[in-house]
Amino acid sequence: VDEVESVSVDWEVGAAAVRTRAGAGDFGDKLARRIVTTGCGQGTVFGDPMAAAEALRLPAPAASAIAAATIVAALEVVRALPSVHRDAGSVHGTALLRGAELLFHVEDVGRHNAVDTLAGWMAMHGVAGADKLIVTTGRLTSEMVLKAAICGVPTVVSRNGITAMGLELAQRLDMTLLGRASGRRFICYCGDARLVLPVPAPGASAAG
Question: Could you tell me the pTM of the whole model?
């Protein structure tokens, strides 16, 4: 965040200009590699965002274990939020939690925009991700997994499914991905060593 000098938005042409204090280089190399993303409208990024994954180090499962009961409680907290997604559909919601404590929630037409907004909030407020949990309605693609990892969040829960590349990247980074999450049910696609079972019975305490 300290590297950003200014952000200017021209609403008439739909463009934003971000100026950094140190400038930016290597445009030739970055522009030579164009990647079409899985976002709504097929966004485009330049360079090799996956290269950033090689330097990422997330907390080990033993140091960032999370109880299945806590995940169930977190899902209930998010479910109880006022939600455009629930009332009308057509948007994605993303939440950041510490255990079952809601820290931030945002909805956007694009799942990428929602996660990017969450990442920006964490950066602006100096919030670390090691002990946090992301809950999203969007499917877990490699881009979504990478964004969570860059935020330092080792566990991601989605109401949706996962892609093959998302799973492969999460396994490389030793992340925990949970999908098809609803009520007291979810599928653990990878990283089960971070989970503390069992899921509590209805009405039981969700502490832990």
Answer: 0.81
